[in-house]
Amino acid sequence: MNMWKHTLLSFFLFFNVASAIAAPVELDKVVVIVNDGVILQSDINTAVKMLKLNANQRHQSLPDESVLKDQVIEKLLLDTIQLQEADRIGVKIDDNRLDSAISNIAKESQQTQEEMQAELADNDLTYATFREQIRKEMAISEVRNAMVRRRINIIPAEVDNLAKMLANESNATVQYHIQHIQLRFDDADSKEAVARKADELADKLNKGADFSEMAITYSKGPKALSGGDWGWMRKEEMPTIFADQISTQSKGAIIGPFRSGVGYHILKITDVKGLETVAVTEVNARHILLNTSVIMSDEGAQRLLREITAKIKNGDASFAEMARQYSQDPGSASQNGELGYQTPDLYVPEFKHQVETLPVGQISQPFKTVHGWHIVEVLDRRQIDKTDAALKNKAYRILFNRKFNEEAGAWIQEMRASAFIEDMTSETGND
């Protein structure tokens, strides 16, 4: 047995020596050990080539080779740590996602796949290497998102405060045409009575009462006889008590009643100049849903819905009666089939298409969704001002991005600090 070992060892030694003499080849070497992984010289060479290719495409200059190498090693070190964490939590980037990402990269650089591969080859890079690099970058992005998001905490007060700042910035040059009603405290009526009267007036105004008429009739303010009309003003030109109540309300908004030291006030924004508003359409619809089953086929559901539609149109039954009797959507059936005011985006595509395109008061033909077969009728559409909500969403995104970038930096530095790192190019390692 020992004789065979010596024979095999001699064979391999001879083979290696002979190979080395015949064709000297520079072997790949480990440059840095990172936990249980390594960074090879070939990894550094490939990364430098990729960096130079990207810089060339962007007409960007690069530092000298020694600085560039140090920067590349640091990035590879951080990438390796993050990829190890991705493996730990089970992040996988499948070929379909990878192919889609590479297709998008080609489109953004206005290249075909073939042109991209040719450019890589011209820069001594293989397409397989490029694919795996993109896979790694996607995995790093995914693990970073997963781990950093859980570190972020945004409280509602932060969102509200930033939304107010954004509103003030956008309102700096906005002009408002406002009307005003003032109900004063006096000896004749108690403060509670004045408050009740203010609530009554605001309710009437929100229901469409004429503001000018109400102002002339009830207001004790300085512009009462002109219908409470203060004309066009920027917020900085208004009385402070008015400016404090106006944020991003749009044309037609009734504000108040709100209290001051002299009484209660109600404002109307008659018109606005220069304010960017966000409006959405809400639809109030009602429907009847039939589920298919062993005893109710697709054809049977369509036939029954057509019969129900005919009864409603002929006046033999109301939509509400038919919904209560036949609809298999328990949430809306008890409400006469009504779904309430909703944005169409909340519905599945087929239902969304119907409520967006149907004229008000017209019943649709039977149509199928993932829930079953429906008929639907649009009862009303209305425009809703969502400027405040849009500003809060914008404020949240700004806060999230700020905190994400801060926390991402802290997270990767914590990961680096806890990692075992040994530089194999120096005589002494460090961790």
UniProtKB/TrEMBL annotation:
Signal sequence range: 1-22
Subcellular location as annotated: Periplasm
Coiled coil: none
Domain of life: Bacteria
A Gene Ontology molecular function term of the record: peptidyl-prolyl cis-trans isomerase activity
Keyword Transmembrane helix: no
One BP annotation, GO: protein stabilization
Main location: periplasm
Function: Chaperone involved in the correct folding and assembly of outer membrane proteins. Recognizes specific patterns of aromatic residues and the orientation of their side chains, which are found more frequently in integral outer membrane proteins. May act in both early periplasmic and late outer membrane-associated steps of protein maturation.
Domains as described in the record: The PPIase activity resides only in the second parvulin domain. The N-terminal region and the C-terminal tail are necessary and sufficient for the chaperone activity of SurA. The PPIase activity is dispensable for SurA to function as a chaperone. The N-terminal region and the C-terminal tail are also required for porin recognition.
Record-given protein name: Chaperone SurA
Highest classification ranks of the organism: Bacteria, Pseudomonadati, Pseudomonadota, Gammaproteobacteria, Vibrionales
Gene: surA
